[in-house]
Specification:
alpha/beta; Rossmann fold; 6-stranded parallel sheet
Length: 194
């Protein structure tokens, strides 16, 4: 894997990509970023929460069905897939042209999740499966608090095993995300002017 921290370099990589993977802790804005990239690049946005993992009533799909759905989406020619699930990364990474990893401080993730819960309390947010109203509990908050220690090592293992030339764009704040989108707008706009 090739770590990319510069947003201008990342924008150049992204503008030519047909298959992007957006990963990161809950509350980091994976779906929001994926939607914005989808609008700019014309790539279909696949939400792991909405399209792969969850059934109404917060019921997790059976593992074989998750694998089948993930495999089918990954086989498509063009996509942005947002979501973590380190266990399904081997299904997505072989076809991914670039990974965007949102690695925000946990306090930012927690703050964002609480704000999201207040905004969508009792409602289903757009990137979630039907019949799964927004919820928050101690288990979910603990998952976020421990994400970097518990989930990131496995993510790194999968990224390192994927291939040497895989660009992994690391964003550590909402400012980085906004800068990337601005740089992407410039890169796309500059290409259109030629």
């Amino acid at each position: 894997m090739i770590i990319v921290n510069d947003t201008k370099e990342a924008a150049e990589i992204i503008k030519g990509s047909r298959r992007l993977l957006v990963i990161g802790c809950s509350g980091n804005g994976k779906s929001t970023l994926s939607n914005r990239l989808s609008e700019r690049l014309g790539l279909p946005h696949i939400s792991c929460d909405r399209d792969i993992f969850w059934l109404p009533g917060w019921k997790l799909r059976p593992r074989p069905e998750i694998v089948e759905r993930m495999t089918a989406f990954a086989a498509e020619d063009r996509w942005i897939i947002d979501g973590n699930s380190p266990g399904t990364l081997p299904l997505r990474l072989p076809r991914t042209e670039a990974v965007i990893w949102l690695r925000f401080p946990r306090w930012m993730s927690l703050t964002s999740v609480v704000k999201r819960w207040l905004r969508y309390r009792g409602k289903v947010r757009p990137e979630m499966a039907e019949g799964c109203p927004e919820k928050i509990d101690a288990k979910f908050l603990s998952y976020i608090w421990n994400f970097e220690k518990a989930e990131s090592p496995e993510i790194v293992q999968h990224l390192e095993a994927a291939r040497r030339d895989l660009p992994v764009i690391i964003l550590t704040s909402y400012q980085d995300t906004n800068r990337l989108l601005s740089d992407l707008d410039s890169a796309i706009g500059g290409e259109l002017k030629r």
